[in-house]
């Protein structure tokens, strides 16, 4: 089983949307997927409750209680964890001890920059990360489509000192689908596939699968 932790201490960066999008992408590919909610806001659990029976199957795990961490069905191939905002101390060690990679979504704003830089620095204090056993993947998230290639936005992400692995544009489709317990990867129409392609670089990094996605 491969475990992916989606984490950032900055609220509103799109952490939950990142977790549900990646989980659905994997489920659509045919993998056995579980989505663990370790955040007290339980946004992921609420999304899963809304999810139609006809949608790609994603197992729901409630990891808000620290005693539940690590409890996963044996047939799961990929586990996605929606981390709490404050990933620190023993709780952080527990979650990261389960993880093969950490995905950190970040929006191009001054507040996200400062918060994320502190978060990434704090992660380096954790032994497992310091030893290079966990990949840290930065996701440029909710970037306005027309500004994605602008020098200003490019320069912003250079300040993080961590090159984004993928660039995700701001789209209303994410919110519209989430309200129904769905994700962009639950659809095959061209307008959704065009958005899905932005996730290809990060999917390639976390999945050992040479077959085509789109």
TrEMBL record:
Q: What is the lineage of its organism?
A: Bacteria, Pseudomonadati, Pseudomonadota, Gammaproteobacteria, Moraxellales
SUPFAM superfamilies noted in UniProt: P-loop containing nucleoside triphosphate hydrolases
Could you identify this protein by its name?
A: CobQ/CobB/MinD/ParA nucleotide binding domain-containing protein
The record's listing under CDD domains reads: ParAB_family
Which Pfam families does this entry report, sorted A to Z? Answer: CbiA
**Species name:** Acinetobacter nectaris CIP 110549
Q: Which domain of life is it from?
A: Bacteria
Residues covered by the CobQ/CobB/MinD/ParA nucleotide binding domain: 4-176
């Amino acid at each position: 089983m491969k475990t992916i932790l989606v984490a950032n201490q900055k609220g509103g960066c799109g952490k939950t949307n990142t977790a549900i999008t990646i989980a659905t992408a994997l489920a659509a590919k045919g993998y056995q997927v579980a989505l663990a909610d370790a955040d007290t806001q339980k946004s992921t659990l609420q999304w899963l409750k809304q999810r139609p029976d006809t949608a790609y199957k994603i197992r729901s795990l409630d990891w808000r209680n620290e005693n539940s961490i690590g409890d996963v069905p044996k047939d799961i191939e990929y586990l996605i964890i929606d981390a709490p905002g404050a990933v620190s101390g023993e709780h952080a060690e527990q979650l990261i001890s389960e993880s093969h990679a950490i995905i950190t979504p970040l929006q191009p704003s001054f507040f996200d920059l400062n918060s994320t830089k502190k978060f990434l620095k704090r992660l380096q204090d954790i032994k497992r990360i310091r030893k290079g056993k966990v990949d840290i993947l930065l996701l440029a998230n909710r970037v306005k489509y027309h500004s994605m290639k602008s020098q200003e936005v490019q320069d912003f992400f250079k300040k993080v000192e961590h090159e984004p692995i993928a660039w995700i544009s701001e789209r209303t489709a994410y919110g519209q689908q989430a309200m129904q317990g769905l994700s962009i990867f639950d659809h095959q129409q061209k307008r959704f596939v065009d958005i899905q392609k932005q996730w290809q670089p990060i999917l390639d990094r976390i999945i050992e699968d040479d077959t085509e996605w789109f």
